[in-house]
Specification:
2 copies of one chain form a homodimer. Chain A has 338 residues and is of the alpha/beta class. Chain A has a single domain, classed as TIM Barrel (Alpha-Beta Barrel). Helices cover 46% and strands 12% of the residues of chain A. Chain A has 13 helices and 9 strands. In chain A, the strands form 2 sheets. Chain A has a 7-stranded parallel sheet with strand order 1-4-5-6-7-8-9. The longest helix of chain A has 24 residues. The radius of gyration of chain A is 19 Å and the shape is globular. Chains A and B meet through helix 7 and helix 12 of A and helix 7 and helix 12 of B.
């Protein structure tokens, strides 16, 4: 057990002296120290596979920001290589995934293909016993969208057409991804991480009926199976939180990580689940006084004494100012729960 | 009164024989006939000011699609010139608005500066008495965002920072825009249009607390003032409908035009207001069978015999196929309300 167990106490709704804080993409390009380590590998995927460097990067936010949790440095696309796909991160262009669109051509996922990830987890736990370590994976729909689009997308048009017009194949793909993510997260848990987060970054692009009919069952099955096997907290991150709240509340996740489309005081009335996030990342571009004010406004609107984890509604961006991120973390840490 | 008053009967919740249908951006680049007329003027803004051409363009969807309403051909940025701003539409780049950021430098809006718009309305009504004519304007926040960003935006970062850090100026700007839009829509109504639609395309980018504190009062005031003076239906179009539904329900608009983030059957349970829209525009890229299926799925989910107007959750796009748009309209027109 980590010495500073604030995050775990908040998740178990035990008394806490202040709200725990960590940030999505807390180890990233906005940090000079990250950029220096990044230079040591030719591309981003090689960096993810370099255990020494990934451990150092994972530890940066604890050293530089003194956050309450470490999320391991990796990328949600990492397990797709284990399905036989070519994954590339081209500088300035974002990720690309090469897939021929045939579900039958996917290799059976072997979790050992990502052994470097489990080594990173073990090494991060070995090198610090201060704070809990968070493992993570993409949710089935979000990974499917990268496979079908071939990379990032704004409208997810190809994914939607695949889902509507190749319904049987889409279902098979979602099943394969659900099993893959289950195996991948299981191996992360067995490597010792204390919490896992599932990133459903893009399901928010769907209509409610498409989510209900084509997506919900797989996410639900994944999380249910994890919770049956492992006694470890599961965080579910989803965008467009307002639209999909009722589905998310039915998932067996312990923690719901919210974007800024919902009012946390209203969500708190509907659920006893632990909540995370909700601050609009854009406040990090504001002046210091505004940043503090908006952060305190959010903290004051949390009608709980525990069961809340501070985070943003989305990840940190490369052009953010480190000093403002530090100010944000300190503002949360200095806030007294009334 | 137009001969085919289906739209007006649906709005007044009188009996209808089928759901009325019109489409946002129904006269646009996806139509060959539009592209031919577009060629006759050097730029988009000149096209909007050319009454003859704008009348012809406005009439195209009635001629080619036989829709149940004509929305006049124009753009929401048109009245900004009346505030002394330079508005440009650069082909392939989207709109640009030049403003020095000083609220004091804005000219007092004279509705006569947009007399061509009222002429278009009068001429469209003169040339056909078949269907109702819809006038429109952008909502205060949406126009403010174009002024502050200088054009379109994905994150509305400048707008948010202006709103948070120059709160007094932002409020003054919203007041000026509210008065401007009121005068502009009043002149459209006096020119004879039967319905007006207010496009709040971008308020959905805000957090709920920002919308509540910085935006809601102006939209509410605008619509309230319109409804006090004119006995004419007001449609309020808003994106991110799920998140802002409770605010929209409180507005005095007669019709709420929804995107696809909500389930219309659920919204229908919450309100007696007339509803419009809700179909995801992406279905227009699907095969014909899928397009029909998704359209019928939506129509069947409307738990009403009147009080619904078919539309998409957003406007038509230039790369859509005219034949599919026609199929969409015909599918709606052939649907029998059970």
């Amino acid at each position: 057990m980590p010495k500073r167990d604030l995050l775990l106490r908040a998740i178990h709704q035990n008394p806490i002296e202040r709200f725990p804080v960590w940030l999505m993409r807390q180890a990233g390009r906005y940090m000079k120290e990250y950029r220096e380590l990044r230079e040591k590998e030719k591309d981003f995927l090689s960096l993810c596979k370099n255990v020494d460097l990934s451990v150092k990067i994972s530890l940066l936010p604890l050293e530089l920001l003194d956050v309450d949790a470490i999320i391991i440095f990796s990328d949600i696309l990492v397990p797709l290589e284990g399905l036989g796909l070519t994954v590339r991160f081209v500088e300035g262009e974002g990720p690309s995934v090469e897939w021929d669109g045939k579900v039958g051509s996917l290799k059976k996922y072997d979790p050992e293909s990502n052994s470097f990830v489990y080594q990173i987890i073990q090494r991060v736990i070995g090198e610090q016993q201060e704070v809990p370590v968070i493992g993570f994976a993409g949710a089935p729909f979000t990974l499917a969208s990268y496979m079908i689009e071939g990379g990032a997308s704004r409208d997810f048009l190809r994914t939607k057409l695949f889902m509507w017009e190749r319904e049987y194949d889409f279902g098979r793909l979602m099943e394969i991804l659900t099993d893959t993510i289950y195996d991948y997260l299981s191996a992360q848990i067995e490597a010792g991480c204390h919490v896992v987060q599932i990133f459903d970054s893009w399901a928010g692009a769907l209509s409610r009926s498409d989510y209900e009919y084509h997506v919900y069952q797989y996410t639900d099955h994944l999380i249910g199976r994890m919770k049956e096997k492992y006694d470890i907290p599961v965080i579910y991150f989803f965008r467009n939180s307002s639209s999909f709240m009722d589905f998310a509340l039915n998932l067996r996740a312990d923690v719901l990580s919210l974007d800024w489309s919902v009012d946390i005081s209203e969500v708190s009335l509907k659920t006893d689940k632990v909540l995370q996030g909700n601050l609009e990342p854009a406040v990090l571009y504001a002046e210091e006084e505004t940043l503090k004010l908006k952060t305190l406004e959010l903290l004051r609107s949390v009608p709980r004494k525990t069961g809340y984890i501070f985070n943003l509604g989305h990840g940190l961006a490369p052009d953010m100012d480190f000093n403002k991120v530090k100010l944000l973390v300190d503002t949360v840490k200095n806030y007294n729960i009334p």
